[in-house]
Amino acid sequence: MLDTTKIFDLITAKKGQIAVLIDPDKSNKKEELDKLIEKSEFADIDFFFVGGSTVTREQFEYVVNYLSNNSELPVVLFPGASHQISSRADAILYLSLISGRNPDYLIGHHVLSANEIYDMRVEVIPTAYILIDGGTKSSVAYVSQTTPIPSDKSSIILNTAKAGILQGKKLIYVDAGSGAINHVPNKVISELASLNKPIIVGGGITKIEEIDALQKAGANVIVIGNKIEEDIDFLLDLKMVTKKKWKN
Ligand code: 1GP
Asked: Is 1 inside any structural domain?
């Protein structure tokens, strides 16, 4: 692993940054990726995240290589399993699914990929990954066979994040799951912000007002997947958010 904190420092530096999540299971054609890159660069988004619940190694490598060869934007891995790793990325979110009690997602996948990741020249960011109920059964809850934390159980969410920090996690990633009906509540983000660790939030975020509110609540990075898969021109609307950010 690379002894650098470059991507971690970028994530920490500002609130309200935007990550476009690319699921290589769904977007893996050259033309699609070209369009995504072009519009994401125009929109001045901050990061590409790459990962998914049901991705093959070939799809994963193809997409990571394509993005790093064709865009200057940082490529950050958001792996759904131990085979979703690549030395071509700028960083790996080294996720432990600490809202769940499935040992495979707490340590199993990590052991399977440790040897490879250890020797990769890639920044590794230990991340407390916390699933919050978003009103529908998400792929990640199904695939990991874990139960998300109910979104109104603030103290469980907060204590889970605290336990993650005590274990050495540098980032908190709260996820309502791709396609969630309800994103992680703003209140949860503002409570987590009191822990003074960078926060990434994703799942079910589809509106500019939601992004603004999550930024105000204290989220460093807001992840958008589904909405852009459905309507790539949402990236043009996102330009408004990124413009405002430079003014601040
Ligand atoms: C990443 O799961 C999210 O954390 C992405 O969710 O696809 O609903 O934007 P969406």
From this structure: no
